[in-house]
Write a structure and sequence with these properties.
NAD(P)H dehydrogenase (quinone) activity, FAD/NAD(P)-binding domain, binds flavin-adenine dinucleotide, NADH-Q_oxidoreductase, alpha/beta, 9 helices, 384 residues, 5-stranded parallel sheet
Length: 384
Amino acid sequence: MYQKSQTTKKLLLIGGGHSHAIVLRSHINNPLPNINLSLISENLETPYSGMLPGHIAGFYTHDECHINLQHLTNLAGAKFYINRVINLDLNNNRVFCENLPPIDFDILSIDIGSIPASLTVTGAEEYAIAAKPVKRLLAEWEKLCNEIQDYQSSVRIGIVGGGAGGVELALAMQAKLTNERELEIHLYNRDRNLMSSYDYSIQKLMKKVLLRRNIKLHLGETVSKLEKKSKQGNIDKINLTCESGLSLECDRIFWVTQASAPQWLTTTGLTTDKKGFILINNKLQSVSHPHIFASGDIATMVNHPHPKAGVFAVRQGKPLFNNLRRYIFGETLKSYIPQRDYLSLIGTGDGKAVANRGNFTLPPSRLLWFWKDWIDRKFMQQFK
Ligand SMILES: Cc1cc2nc3c(=O)[nH]c(=O)nc-3n(C[C@H](O)[C@H](O)[C@H](O)COP(=O)(O)OP(=O)(O)OC[C@H]3O[C@@H](n4cnc5c(N)ncnc54)[C@H](O)[C@@H]3O)c2cc1C
């Protein structure tokens, strides 16, 4: 544990994810003592994952679903570096960024999210649009929405990954574009079941919803290659091939496979799990380096592994802030135990949502969407 001290310490936050947004907001309300606080984030704003599919479907503006980190750091009196972290030197407590001299820290907290896995599939990096970083996803989505008028024939979208993110994205895109043009959406998933980390009751329900909305499902199919195809007018097509030999030409392919960790973390000396995520204890501290905290998608709780979802990154925010405070004061840190069963409200893109908790699932309804909308707007209100 850290020795209680009156000297000012450097607390450095890497990544402006959900937990760190809450840490900054909490610091504004109840400042951490004797601390020089800094944030390094690639972007000025960070998207709130709960409203992201709703934004794609056209329910929320960009500002409504983004937290302004510049504003938050200003209010928190924190230094803000807009840059990308590329490595850590844990012997000397320094962080390396793409375009800055090394930054020193005494206490470090990491909340950098995740990136979609298997972008190493031939052609995926080049031709697919990854769901993360979200900034690029949204820029590409906006471009497609603008270009769609130029299409001579129907528009065909491929979505690779049938977890909650892929399913929500498919429904949101279908809802937004369906009146614009003749549209085909194809959803590919390696497993035979969609949303494999969820209960069977919601897997079954979401499959029904997708089929009713005319989204073509390719379950048990592993995408193995993407390649650029013939040009039609000014528009490139991408050919998607599966291991089974199934092949399809698409206008755009979105890559929403399960979460993975960035490569650079593996050389830092931090203990990670087999997938490269930082292993943390119940106090949200690295199991190998107690002065380093981690939360959100990038962290795996050794004793309580849970799915990579924004809802956990949000819930870890407050306990993270409280444990940072205790660490600074030299007090005993408190455990955070995530709920085993938690409520998921999943938008279906058409002004409705479904609800799930454990093996209890409710079908799409407007009431559930109003409830989700109320929760999400209330969450965002605290950052305005
Ligand atoms: C399409 C889609 C829909 C989803 N919908 C939902 C949903 O409805 N509900 C839900 O709970 N979850 C949802 N998720 C999952 C959710 O997005 C993630 O679980 C959540 O964003 C994780 O939050 P986080 O705080 O860990 O990281 P993030 O929200 O990803 O934030 C990480 C931040 O760190 C920054 N960063 C990353 N690397 C670096 C670096 N090297 N240097 C500096 N800064 C860096 C990023 O720019 C980003 O701002 C969805 C995911 C997708 C892809």
